[in-house]
Amino acid sequence: MTPVFELLPWDSGMLGFQVARLLPSHLSSHTLRQALATLKEAGVHLVYGCVDPTDLESCVAASEQNGKLVDEKTTYVLDLHTIKDMIGNETIDYYEAVEPDETLQILALESGKFSRFLKDERIGRLNFEKIYRQWIINSCHKTIADNILVVREKGKILGMATVGKKKNRGDIGLLAVLPSAQGKGVGTRLLHSVHAYFYKNNTPVIQVVTQKENIPACRLYEKCHFKIESIQHFYHFWLR
What we know:
Elements: E1 5-7, H1 9-15, E2 19-22, H2 29-41, E3 46-51, H3 56-64, E4 68-79, H4 102-111, H5 116-119, H6 125-140, E5 147-153, E6 156-166, E7 169-177, H7 186-200, E8 205-211, H8 215-223, E9 227-238
Parallel strand pairs: 2-3, 7-8
Antiparallel strand pairs: 1-2, 3-9, 4-8, 4-9, 5-6, 6-7
Helix pairs in contact: 2-3, 4-6
């Protein structure tokens, strides 16, 4: 049976060519080859696929079909009930305007420096920046996030996190600290603010997805009591 897939209008619009995603997590070489042939005939340029790294058949199939491993997608989860006594009250919203200022745009790009969109050279730096700038714009418009939390010093934003909900969980979308402020506890303050925000909003389980390669981010989440829930290998299949 050919794997089910879906076309991705937003990604296609941002990148300027047709993009699709494979929905099953298990892929045999035969069914993957059929799916990619069908999508190529339909004019699709790029296909995303995500598999469990312990599923050797799927990993071999992806390699045989020239899949480019662009991310070890790592999902961290925290149940706030386990740290209830450590949750503070500080949350600082970004509320100046419905458009991101220059600092938020810089932070959005900083948050994506290990992104698969930057790692895959065929997508290119310009498209990477276009995607992340639009991401922070949409977050300010509250179409893909409920709020943006920031850390300030002397009126200057040093770090930010976009927050929302996915499948009844609190979700951190983008999180970044200015390079000049890194290593000074800003990331920890941000996550403490995230804890307080979701606790106040009766959303005790929080998730965040990052790249295994992004060691500073992984260390930060683990320091702030997040635990790894899953790791998936994310592939790009270029058909044209």
